Amino acid sequence: MCGRFTLKTQPDQWGQLLLPLLDLEVAKAEWTPRYNIAPTQNIVAIAVNCESAERLTAYFRWGLVPSWAEDLAIGNRMINARAETISEKRSFAGPLKSRRCIVVADGYYEWRAEGKLKQPYWIHPADAGVVAMAGLWETNRRATGQPVNSCTIITTSANEKLAELHDRMPVILSGDDVTRWLDPKLAVDAATAMLGPAANEMLEAAAVDRRVNNARVDDSECLRFV
User: Fold this and answer.
1) Distances in Å between the alpha carbon of 210 and those of 17, 40, 163, 205?
2) Residues 16, 122, 174: CA angle, nearest 5 degrees
3) Prediction pTM value
4) What is the band of 16 on the pLDDT scale with cuts at 50, 70, 90?
5) Does the CA dihedral 116-118-121-122 come out positive or negative?
6) Please, which pLDDT band fits residue 34 given cuts at 50, 70 and 90?
7) 114-132 in b/e burial notation, b at 16+ Cβ within 10 A?
């Protein structure tokens, strides 16, 4: 499960990791630091134009809305796609073939029950950098009469280190796998073979302020360690 995440790192910094995959000017145009990104909001993603095969940076609505859907609300239930069944689901099978994307983040949240309360944890790269989460995107023109680009984040089973917090985690790609994932010529079998958990040493988890539990709150205090 990945239901909230952060991207507070400046584009000039995370852009160095992903160049030449993105156009920094596009990223800078609408970017603001985010501490509590929630479903249905616009998120930074790197995708491939299906017609030209050109990589592009865009802001996608989080929660994939299938091309056939009549209402954007269906995307509220499609913020994540399970790696194990992704090729079997009607909504995800098409995008898996040719509309794969990368969602940029510098951490994500999970919750663990502690007594009567749910304690949020911020899971972030051990090197304090950013991560490239594997995703799928789609364009819907039926719901509003205008094209709406949306995406989902792919999840897989949690690694041993993070399993005590949650049994799922986003698929995180690195190195040459980022480029391979975005290649529209990559076969579906090869793409699904990439969807395993991150290495234990890649991520760290820290308990943070419960104000992040409110999706309407988005400020630096969300990351106050407790």
Assistant:
1) 31, 21, 21, 15
2) 35
3) 0.95
4) low
5) negative
6) very high
7) eeeeebbbbbbbeeeebbb
Q: What is the mean pLDDT of residues 16-40?
A: 77
Residue 85 structure tokens: 């069944």
Residues 109-123 have pLDDT tens digits of 999 998 889 999 999
Q: Is 2 a catalytic residue?
A: yes
- Enumerate the β-bridge partners of residue 140: 148
Nearest to 164 by CA among 200, 116, 135, 133: 200
Which region holds residue 133: left if phi is over 0, alpha if psi is between -120 and 50, else beta?
beta
Token reading at 216: 């309407």
| Identified catalytic residue from 2, 101, 151, 222 | 2
Q: Is 84 a catalytic residue?
A: no
Active-site residue, from 101, 110, 138, 151 = 110
